[in-house]
Amino acid sequence: DAKTTQPPSMDCAEGRAANLPCNHSTISGNEYVYWYRQIHSQGPQYIIHGLKNNETNEMASLIITEDRKSSTLILPHATLRDTAVYYCIVRVNTGNQFYFGTGTSLTVIP
Amino acid sequence: NAGVTQTPKFQVLKTGQSMTLQCAQDMNHNSMYWYRQDPGMGLRLIYYSASEGTTDKGEVPNGYNVSRLNKREFSLRLESAAPSQTSVYFCASIKERDTEAFFGQGTRLTVV
């Protein structure tokens, strides 16, 4: 299963875009990139996922590089409620496992 | 539509005691998962069940057993609890391989 690497922490000013990077250099062709976030100690919440193309939904945008070795989650206008730990996950092809790394702790500053 | 429901929400055990954590989902999902999360750490996969009647080990299966009772329910059993199993346990379910997973709100377990 492909591993992911994320910075341990980031800050972002309220109202600005938050750009969270993720490296997944060993990703295989049919593995998806998923992003989840965990607020306080609640259960993780799905944000977005993609395979090759960039994706956008009401919460965020996902930019995947052409070689698929890295991606960026963009929260266009960060609010205080976006303060959370963000996990980048690559979904393995065999079976149905998916593994969390240590994530990026995002703090949105007023 | 309750989503993924875990019981209990909190539990304190003595070393050596046994207990079963319950998880149920009402979304007709095929796959279910158990994770543990230690303080300041990410989630680690304990066991998963790709479909009713099947279970497989994840990253940290030692000290745990699971049962996929039916499509709705996936239980996690600690036969002889140890302080190292103090953690927050999350259950999750997913319908298909490329769709989002839904998580329960967690069971906070302390073993003393």
Key terms for this structure?
heterodimer; A: 110 residues; mainly beta; five-stranded mixed sheet; four-stranded antiparallel sheet; 9 strands; globular; B: 112 residues; 0% helix
Q: What secondary-structure arrangement, pairings included, does this model have?
A:
The complex is a heterodimer of chains A (110) and B (112).
Chain A: E1 9-13, E2 18-23, E3 33-38, E4 45-50, E5 55-56, E6 61-64, E7 70-75, E8 84-90, E9 104-109
Parallel strand pairs in A: 1-9
Antiparallel strand pairs in A: 2-7, 3-4, 3-8, 5-6, 6-7, 8-9
Chain B: E1 4-7, E2 10-13, E3 19-25, E4 31-37, E5 43-49, E6 56-57, E7 65-68, E8 74-78, E9 87-94, E10 101-103, E11 107-111
Parallel strand pairs in B: 2-11
Antiparallel strand pairs in B: 1-3, 3-8, 4-5, 4-9, 5-6, 7-8, 9-10, 9-11
Task: Tell me what you see in this structure.
The complex is a heterodimer of chains A (110) and B (112). Chain A is globular, with a radius of gyration of 13 Å. The mean pLDDT of chain A is 91. Helices cover 0% and strands 44% of the residues of chain A. A five-stranded mixed β-sheet of chain A has the order 1-9-8-3-4, with no helix packed on it. Chain A is mainly β and 110 residues long. In chain B, 36% of the residues are buried. The radius of gyration of chain B is 13 Å and the shape is globular. The termini of chain B are far apart. In chain B, the strands form two sheets. In chain B, strands 2, 4, 5, 6, 9, 10 and 11 form a seven-stranded mixed β-sheet that branches. In chain B, strands 1-3-8-7 form a four-stranded antiparallel β-sheet, with no helix packed on it. Chain B is mostly beta strands. In chain B, a hairpin with a 6-residue loop joins strand 5 (43-49) and strand 6. In chain B, 0% of the residues lie in helices and 50% in strands.
